[in-house]
């Protein structure tokens, strides 16, 4: 089985951070979004990965090659963003007839991955949501088989949203339906959509069973990214290198602090993730994500997202600052 991870999106809702950093490499709970996905699949036994890259794709490739040298990896460039269906279609020659597990590049979920991989059926991950109109929506029968999937329906038939996890056994069938979408120019909301290809497979007799995810961590925009960071920190606990020594500093867990940080005269936490080689002095930080090589002095941060190589000085409350930024509130 091969894993396919589309990470070609520009991440517009997370700007200014995604001007200089792919969304998949945004830090969360001491790791990157992409690492949560790859680690989960690798630990389940998948060793071959296909990454669909585009915007800042060279950074994704460099990160994967450095972090996961033991994996067999392929990089496919989606130069024009024409939807998830178009992205997956680009992987046809690499996948061949192998089974595939598609995980969207901003999808961190808690689920029984072994149960999914061991199932004799193709599987789609679902979760009940209050308003399914912004998601792919699945209609599921009493046996748990999926009868229909529709992308962002105006009047949803169910409240079961597709979460971005797709195990597909009949990959040749998938690529036939993707080819049909592209050749007949069948688009939804202006894009070739993977949901439409899956519905094509169902209509032509493919069997898809649903599986429910325990948790679905939304990493699409600042507010939900910070919420997900807090939940994941609580779930996995603190991650602070033992040789750290923070002078006159109070740590309120859960907190993740990467190596090389210098923190003095500060209060850190709860729910704070700090990247490597960051310096913090005379500051109070809670419910925030701080990038690497960043300098913070005399700041009070709450529900903030600070990029890498940034510098912030002076009193503040809630910020959303991208990489390579310098701000002085003095």
UniProtKB/TrEMBL annotation:
CDD domains linked: NTP_transferase
Residue ranges of domain Nucleotidyl transferase in the record: 2-233
UniProt xrefs under InterPro entries: NTP_transferase_dom, Nucleotide-diphossugar_trans
Protein name per Swiss-Prot or TrEMBL: Sugar phosphate nucleotidyltransferase
Native species: Parasediminibacterium paludis
């Amino acid at each position: 089985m091969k894993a396919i991870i589309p990470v070609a999106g520009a991440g517009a809702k997370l700007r200014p951070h995604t001007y200089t950093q792919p969304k998949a490499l945004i830090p969360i709970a001491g790791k990157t979004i992409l690492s949560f996905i790859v680690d989960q699949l690798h630990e389940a036994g998948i060793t071959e990965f296909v990454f669909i890259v585009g915007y800042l794709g060279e950074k994704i490739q460099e990160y994967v090659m450095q972090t996961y040298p033991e994996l067999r990896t392929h990089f496919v460039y989606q130069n024009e963003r024409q939807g998830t269906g178009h992205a997956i279609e680009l992987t046809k020659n690499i996948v061949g007839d192998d089974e595939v597990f598609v995980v969207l590049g901003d999808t961190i979920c808690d689920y029984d991955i072994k149960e999914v991989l061991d199932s004799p059926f193709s599987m789609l991950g679902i979760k009940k949501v209050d308003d399914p109109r912004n998601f792919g929506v699945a209609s599921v029968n009493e046996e748990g088989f999926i009868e229909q999937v529709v992308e962002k329906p105006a009047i949803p038939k169910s409240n079961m949203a597709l979460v971005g996890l797709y195990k597909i056994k009949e990959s040749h069938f998938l690529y036939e339906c993707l080819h049909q979408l592209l050749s007949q120019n069948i688009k939804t909301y202006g894009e070739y959509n993977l949901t439409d290809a899956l519905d094509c497979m169902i209509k032509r007799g493919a069997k898809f069973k649903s599986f429910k995810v325990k948790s679905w961590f939304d990493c699409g925009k600042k507010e939900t990214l910070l919420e997900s960071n807090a939940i994941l920190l609580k779930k996995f606990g603190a991650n602070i290198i033992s040789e750290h020594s923070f002078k006159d500093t109070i740590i309120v867990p859960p907190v993740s602090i990467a190596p090389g940080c210098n923190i003095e005269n500060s209060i850190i936490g709860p729910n704070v993730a700090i990247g490597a080689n960051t310096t913090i002095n005379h500051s109070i930080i809670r419910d925030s994500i701080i990038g690497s090589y960043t300098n913070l002095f005399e700041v009070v941060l709450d529900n903030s997202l600070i990029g890498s190589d940034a510098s912030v000085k002076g009193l503040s409350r809630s910020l959303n600052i991208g990489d390579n930024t310098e701000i002085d509130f003095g």
